[in-house]
Design goal:
The complex is a heterodimer of chains A (149) and B (133). Chain A has a domain at 3-17 and 61-148: Thiol Ester Dehydrase, Chain A. Chain A contains 4 helices and 5 strands; from the N terminus they run E-H-H-H-E-E-E-E-H. Chain A has helices at 19-28, 34-37, 39-43, 141-148; strands at residues 13-16, 75-84, 93-108, 111-123, 129-139. Chain A is elongated. By secondary structure, chain B is of the alpha+beta class. Chain B contains 3 helices and 5 strands, in the order E-H-H-H-E-E-E-E. The longest helix of chain B has 11 residues, at 23-33. The interface between A and B is medium-sized, with 33 and 35 residues. Strand 2 of chain A pairs antiparallel with strand 2 (76-85) of chain B.
């Protein structure tokens, strides 16, 4: 059922690297460094602005991939990657979307485990990709059975 | 402030030991990230999912780990950050964050990064590629 979804993409959604959200996020990961929210530190930095922590794209809206029904329970986050051309700058706008990159099954301790790899992207308004990320979601046989019912 | 450029292969940045994981840490992360999966905040939901108690969001630990590199924002940026979640983080666990320089090629510093709990078990492991300006 997940194999059929490979290659599907969401429609791009515009996200703003919002000042308040960056501050709240930096605090939540215990990294309240002034480069993330103190305006003067940002202005005097090489970025001439505040930047966002590397895992901040977790907060973005990537739109909906039609037909991909992931349960909100019973999933295991196995792996995560981020790739950047440059740090994200507070106030900038990004067009974000996701794609189902890969699906495979492998025998594990809890039966046949499914591995779904979702790729996500953030582009500037000129269409340049600024960051990309991948999430590997592990779906147990038990959860898949419920889904196909 | 020391710089990453002074590190030799095999050297580590100063490790950080976090305060014991608290429920409010995870509630704050849920709010800031938008990940409201209840196994991270509500005991009964964690138990229903077969867990002994609530567990930290993997992304909370991954987010914390990246702060080893925050002080060096003028020197470069985290270009690649990849993580494998190896073990669960429970309430009151004491997590230590580590990064060791594995390779330096041109302006790219490749670090092995990890988060270990109070029993010395790896809960998260991966790599950071730091791109120097």
């Amino acid at each position: 059922m997940f194999r059929d979804q490979v290659g599907k993409r969401s429609t791009k959604v515009k996200n703003v690297v919002e000042r308040g959200a960056v501050k709240k996020f930096a605090e939540a990961i215990g990294d309240p460094h002034p480069i993330y929210f103190e305006e003067e530190t940002g202005r005097n930095s090489r970025y001439q602005n505040n930047i966002a922590p590397p895992t901040f794209p977790r907060t973005f809206d990537y739109g909906v991939i039609e037909g991909l029904n992931l349960p909100n329970k019973g999933l295991i986050h196995g792996e995560q990657t981020f790739h950047y051309e440059r740090p994200l700058v507070v106030g900038e706008e990004l067009l974000c979307y996701s794609e189902v990159k890969k699906y495979f099954e492998k025998k594990g301790n809890f039966g046949e485990m499914g591995f779904l790899i979702l790729a996500s992207f953030g582009e500037d308004l000129a269409g340049n990709t600024i960051f990309s990320s991948t999430s590997t979601v592990v779906i147990s046989e038990a959860v898949r059975k419920v889904l196909t019912k | 402030m020391s710089t990453l450029a002074q590190l030799n292969v095999g050297d580590s940045v100063k490790e950080i030991q976090l305060e014991p994981v608290s429920r409010i840490d995870l509630i704050k992360y849920a709010g800031a990230s938008g990940d409201f999966n209840p196994i991270h905040t509500i005991d009964e939901e964690a138990k229903k999912a077969g867990l002994p108690g609530i567990i930290a969001h993997g992304m909370w630990t991954m987010g914390n780990l990246a702060k080893l590199f925050t002080p060096y924002f003028e020197e470069g940026f985290v270009k690649n950050y990849s993580i494998r979640f190896k073990g669960m983080v429970f309430l009151n666990d004491v997590i230590t964050l580590k990064a060791t320089l594995k390779e330096a090629v041109d302006n790219k510093l490749r670090f092995q990064v990890q988060a270990v709990n109070q029993n010395g078990n790896e809960v998260l492991k991966g790599e950071v590629l730091f791109n120097q300006y």
